């Protein structure tokens, strides 16, 4: 963008100068993204390409994707650079040394240019309309932070993060609500929510860099403490991948110590009205720290020290038994029916096709009930499938399918619009329009 050049001996009127500045401002605003989607990554080559493609097919055109790579040692950067060659909305920040997820996200936050910032993990998927719909809901609800439910696929396919809350309308959590949710029975890990945050709410708040686990809860909680208004929708457009790398992770001592430190800092600076809840959260993290110590002692065969620790903290017996059961379950062979490929017929009508398993879906193209979304994800999330989807509802449904080998999309009677054709063309996996 070049400035106006004034010829020697001439004068530019203040009016024309103002018009030129205004023209530059308008052009700048048209180039600046509405949403900066930040994605921290560490050795995520297995799922990274699908995650990036699901972001780039968002129906909101004015986005930028900032991939902040935390010194990956696999092919993550090569994948990101290849995808960037075909799409200049992709920006890459490559760290020379590993610094953790908080530091990686902070680099992306500092580089973000959008009015909104969206947090997405590098192994997850998002519905093409997620960004557009969530920002629309945020504007209508008058909030600074908007989030939706997470629908799991992979292990525990079809479950949702907020299922126990049984939301039927937007939830507007307070700081106290956030603390209570994670200590409920069953606990609801609200720190896993993937928010879209308006720049006005961020100020100088950033992720803690001395935490490798729980930094997302701490970040969101401090935004709420600072006065940000948040709403969580009774809708789910975020597909949360459960895989061995995420399921088998157990808190180490350093992880738990970081979580205790974060609560200590909150207790020192937070409102007195939250002191009891914060104290309870601190006890919860101390229990996790003691369990991490117990695991270390058992792995090093220091049985005597482990028994002494359990004698001081008898409550450790329950998580130890639970961990043992989970370990046994992970070693069990997967039933063939759990990984069998499915050919699915996805339709809001009673359409039939030989060789396809029918999956009924709602007839609309927005605000599907979470139960319907979960059922579709459960079916389509078992393994890459051959899909046949009908009409606009079928196009909406493809956004909830976490990958496929081939999809046939049957056009509605009035055909596809130009925008719909562009949306179909941008889907991450092969689609044939019929």
What does this structure look like?
With 434 residues, the protein is of the alpha/beta class. It has three domains: 29-247, Spore Coat Polysaccharide Biosynthesis Protein SpsA, Chain A, CATH 3.90.550; 253-322, no CATH class; 337-433. The chain is built from 17 helices and 15 strands. It has helices at residues 14-31, 45-56, 76-85, 101-111, 130-141, 175-182, 199-202, 215-225, 244-247, 253-269, 275-299, 303-312, 317-331, 336-339, 370-380, 391-398, 418-425; strands at 35-41, 63-69, 90-94, 116-119, 125-126, 145-147, 150-154, 196-198, 230-232, 238-242, 343-347, 357-360, 386-390, 406-410, 431-433. The strands form three sheets. The chain has a seven-stranded mixed sheet with strand order 3-2-1-4-8-6-9, with helices on both faces. It has a five-stranded parallel sheet with strand order 12-11-13-14-15, covered by helices on one side. The chain has a three-stranded mixed sheet with strand order 5-10-7. Strand 14 (406-410), helix 17 (418-425) and strand 15 (431-433) form a beta-alpha-beta unit. Helix 2 runs parallel beside helix 3 (76-85). The radius of gyration is 24 Å and the shape is globular. The two termini are 44 Å apart. 36% of the residues are buried. Residues 1-13 have low confidence and may be disordered.
